[in-house]
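Write out the 3D structure for:
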Amino acid sequence: MKSFYSSLIFLFSLVIAFSQTATWTAFNDSVNKNGGTTDVSVTTINVGRTSPGPSSAELLEFGSGDGTGVTATYEETLTVGSVFWTNDSITYDEESDAAKLFGEALDLSGNISYGDAPGWHMDLILEGLDPNRKYVFAGTAMRGGGAGYAERTTNWKIIGADSFNYASSDGAWKVSDDSVEFSTGHNADGYVAKWTDIAPGADGKIIIRTSHSVGEANGGLAGAHAYKGYAGGAFMLELQGDSGSVSPKKDLSILRVFPKENELEAHPNSPIHVLVEHDVNKVDLNSIKLFLDGEKVEIDVQQESERTLIIYNNNGAFADLSDHTVIVEFADNSTSQVQYSKSWDFTVTEWSQYDSLPIDSAIKLDDLQKQKRGFAIRLAATNPLDLENEIISEIEDLWWIWDENYTDYSDRELFNSSGYYLERNQINYQRDGGSIGNKAGEDLFPGINGTESLILEEEELPVIHFGLEATTYLELNEGYYQMQITTTPKHLLYIGFGDDAVELLPDDSELPGIEDAKAWKYNFIVEKNGLYPFTLLYYDSLGGSSSLTASGGSASSLEWLNVEPMGMRSLINGKEDDSIKAYIPPNAIVEVKPAKMSILIQNGKVIISWGELGILQQSESINGPWNDITGKSSPYSISPNSNSMFYRIKH
């Protein structure tokens, strides 16, 4: 492994291929912030906050410094936070593709970092290419953030070329022939995105677009962050000679397997997947055989036009540190029935040392009188300077505050008569709705209408603190689990409710503190299928730390998800088929009787009567907006006039 302790660099490598013998290679160090790249024939075209420029220039032939006639230009498509031109220390394999391609030409430390919201991308526009020649492009980026940054992923896509051959690193996640992604937050394997035999077309122009992952649902890397990634670090462009031509790929190829070949920390509940990519022919479905440790196993097969997926679902759990061998055999559907086979090994992670959830806390789904999906949320917002009433001053106060006399500054419209908000979806909150954590699409905290709602009259800054309690039953099967909570500033997770609750302790190998850059990890074992009670506490003391503040956002968020055996991350009670189901504790559900309203005309007046718990509303249009009629109780008398008015009961 090779380590650097200076600035991060975004490096693209584009290699141009010609049918003629004349060739050249050009390198660009996009983040030479630490001055580690000293060769004057390496260009330093760059972009991002604090970057010195230029964002466009002619690429130079490596070694001679002669002009290539090709212009490289960076163009950003900005989001809330834009991108940063920044530096961090990195570590990568000296035998990796990145080291071999770029190591002698430039310093790989430095990167152009992600935007603070979904939707960003950056285009590297290459113009002045010869339509009669062919080229090679390679690019990489490295943040060096360690395992906690591994979810931060960059997608690379080639646009505008007439033809090309995919040639990225073997371990990179191929989405399609024109798209690849891999972790750039922790690219210790030194992966590169690469295409050869690139024919630019008549306009002499191609675009290399970098962005966040396309998402698991669209074939992206399992477990990739919804929007965090690195727009680049370095690239190479090469004019390809005859000797650089790449032979066509084989008829069928195994694109990837899971668990990965020689994986040393496989999940004990791992399924076995084999993904085969087609070319002219497909896989003969009747020819497929899969062997696990010498025994043939039953498989499921999914075949599409371009790929065949072979699946073995492990019903149990692999033993601690156990070694396993998988063999897959199949043939294509050609008349000659070409045979294929692959064998690989993996080792299961050590997992039996983790605590088991108490079996006696589990109940059956049938035991729930009211089977409603979601979470029961209680929230209290108090003024820490209030000396006359109870206040929340630490997270443990959330165990007793609900039954005390306190002044609540939260919006109670969403809460039922028992004081609960019934969250039917997921726990993915941010005080102002900003994007943070692994998944995008944050909601406001129930009852907190943004940071402004925490500012008292005649004050300029937020004063109000708030605390949240979420209780739920999670439907869990036997096996090993890793849940993650990304949050700031403070949270606690428990198994159980009330006095029976026992705190679950996070993995202490990497504790994020009050920052939301990384997730808290909770590892545990379930020995019996059932519904398990969980309590999640959260306290916003206005003292969090978040990357959102750099672009004017707030430090206050809470996201709760599960890491699945293949690395995918799904929010608890998410919409995905494999997400963990959550059920609302029955005591939080209030039976709501139908609203009743009666109208009587008496002595020339309209008299409206309604139930005790209802609130009378009025509107000039049946489509609203509707306004509460405050300070009035049933019955309510109205003197009719020529103007029409509509009334309804809200409860």
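Residues 597-650 form one domain.
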